[in-house]
Amino acid sequence: MTSSQVIPVGKATIATQAPPFVIAEMSGNHNGDLDRAFAIVDAVAESGAQALKIQTYTADTLTIRSDKPGFRIADSHGLWGGRTLYELYEEAHTPWDWHAPIFERARSRGLIPFSTPFDPSSVELLEGLGVELYKTASAEIVDLPLIREIARTGKPIIMSTGMATLAEIDAAVSAAHDAGCRQLVLLACTAAYPATPQEARLGNIDALRRAFGVPVGLSDHTLGIGVSVAAVALGAVVIEKHVTLDRSDGGVDSDFSLSPAELTSLVVSAEQARIATQSGTGFGPTPEERAVLALRRSLFVVSDVKKGDLVTPSNVRSIRPAGGLPADAIDVVLGRPFVTDVERGTPLTWDLI
Questions:
Q1: How do the domains of the chain map onto residue ranges?
Q2: Rounded Cα distance, 37 and 56, in Å
Q3: Contacts of 147 (CB under 8 A, 6+ apart)
């Protein structure tokens, strides 16, 4: 596996020379309403993003119903403080009987639908729906049996690395590879909800690419699109962002999710960042700049003069456009006589003085 690897996914491509593969994560932003889930799908399709992702779990496949301290989120957490894991996952999960209609809606709108599975039964469900790739969550990077189960499908895997040490990432990459995964993308990630730009550590994009020789992207939980666009400028080939219809509608992930308009801006700005950073170096005018060369300053006669008049600062100046002597010739021509009458607006040339 190399970082120059081209990974075809449906009609899209994950590659350095392709537009960034933008994944819109619905997560729990459907707020328990299938029609709202469909509306999110439609909004994602209209944004220009290539893929829609959901998560495949139930509260019971992720945890158990318990009020013991380890099963309760710290009160200090800004979004989910004080809730039990079971309560949160019960609210946020996407019902399994919604998967098929959501995938069907996404495919009908030209999107690539896929999911993050959290146990073997969810992999089985997704295989039955014909998913083209898988995502693994940051917290599951240490669940090597799950990673092997996903890798055995032979589908590409996009693996988030939030919280993980290099040793843990290496173990997960090896587990995926040994179980048959030949198309792997790692995502730099800060598993905080929301994360701050100070925590983004975008230098990990290059570090992961060098360490593991695979394409690298970003799973971004910061607010807005700035960090994602910066990541693309640093070589990220995949961007994942949570998306909702309207943050004011509430929901478990709404506070750090993009609106549809912001997602559209991300798609456009990320591609601009990729093109700009791959434009190379060079000096002198580009083809588009050549027309602007005519706007460079040069020496012009700025008032009517008669034969014999001397060149002075009041009748010859450096102005736009080009066409006259270079501006730096002013000290050479000052005091010289005109050899003919010259109208205002004539470029100064050697034959006039």
A1: 7-57+93-277, 287-352
A2: 14
A3: 136, 140, 141, 157, 159, 172, 175, 176, 179
Confidence of residue 154 (pLDDT cuts 50, 70, 90): very high
Q: Which fold has domain 7-57+93-277?
A: TIM Barrel (3.20.20)
pLDDT in tens, 232-262: 999 999 999 999 999 998 878 888 999 999 9
Angle between helices 120-128 and 144-151 (to 10 degrees): 20
**Structure tokens that stand for 88 in this block:** 């949160």
pTM, full prediction:
0.89
* CATH number among 1.20.272.10, 3.10.50.40, 3.40.50.2020, 3.90.1210.10, domain 287-352: 3.90.1210.10
pLDDT at 2 over 50: no
Q: pLDDT value at position 74?
A: 82
CB neighbour class for 220 (10 Å; exposed up to 12, middle 13-18, buried from 19) = buried
The dihedral through the CA atoms of 236, 153, 118, 178 has a sign that is negative
pLDDT, residue 5, reads: 86
